[in-house]
Amino acid sequence: MPHIPYDSLKAKLKGQRILLVGGAGFIGHNLAMELADMGADVMIADNLMVNSMIENSFNPEQDPIQRQAYLDFLLSRFSILREKGVQLRNCDARILIDLGRVFEEYRPTKVVHLAAIASAVDAKQEPGLCFDLQLITLRNVLELVRPKVDEINQTMFMSSSTVYGDFEGDTVDETTFPRPEGIYANAKFMGERLVRTYRTQYGLGTTVIRPSALYGERCISQRVSQKFIENGLTGKPLLLEGGGDGRLDFTYIKDLVQGQVRALALHESPDDSSTFNITFGNARTIKELADIVKEIVPQTILEERPRAVDKPIRGTLSTERAQKILGFKPEWPLETGYRQYCQWYVDAWEKAKRKANDL
């Protein structure tokens, strides 16, 4: 495994203009912050439609504390991005001419496609919107990059571990043949195929990233890691299907971002094309996740449920390729990363509660 000091990547990122399409979301704003710290010039293009201020301000299903907490998280995203000098354009990437204006203004050297519905459940409920946000936006990105391959040396596509479908063994790697199921996973896999087609036919430099079971500060996407801590705080039970023996490769956002930054910095030629699993690389059970919540929030209620027949069978995503090529080394096991996130969430929830009570 090559030893590539993280700080050494700053020299490779200096002078790069990196456009994050759909970059105001959970993954995108964290990536933007880190890239700015690493010396890159960063712009976000986002229509602010998914997990937006308006959506959370007028959601009738939210109680006042949750509404306040989510608004605090979103405002914090924008404040941090502004402080770090990240530019943001309110742009609908589904509209080619709208995104084209951003490309002409910014003239990026690298583009990261992040636009998507973050939840497979939401994608199933709104398949048309999933298709628009994940594939129409990607088509527009690729079409805008295609005539500028001399200027844009890399297009990164954020895929998903769900493209693997049910794991046949404990571990999958990038050579495992994908068997996606459902709207979300198939849209991600179609995106991968589209990216690779543009690579072979038009010479785009491409990188595909497959993350898994993300968690971290300022997430409002209702991933299981967030729902568990929020349920613990609000007296709702944490439902453990099959006793909580399902396994996921839980990954702290800081580890994902480290891998993304390495993949962007070390991709120097349009001739490069790679796919990487960027995860912690060690699947853990849902019960282990719940136990940490119980430790931080002692009043948490755990309830066992029968295992759902349609739940995917998951496991560990091998990160060996990312280790060998990028020098990627995850640093946040569940015991430290998720515990830190839970404590942050408890503190943020208490602040939101005080604000909501003062209204």
TrEMBL record:
- Which pathway does it serve? Bacterial outer membrane biogenesis; LPS O-antigen biosynthesis
- Residues forming the NAD-dependent epimerase/dehydratase domain are 18-278
Source organism superkingdom = Bacteria
Q: Which Pfam families match?
A: Epimerase (PF01370)
Similarity remark: Belongs to the NAD(P)-dependent epimerase/dehydratase family.
The protein in question is named Nucleoside-diphosphate-sugar epimerase
The species is Aestuariispira insulae
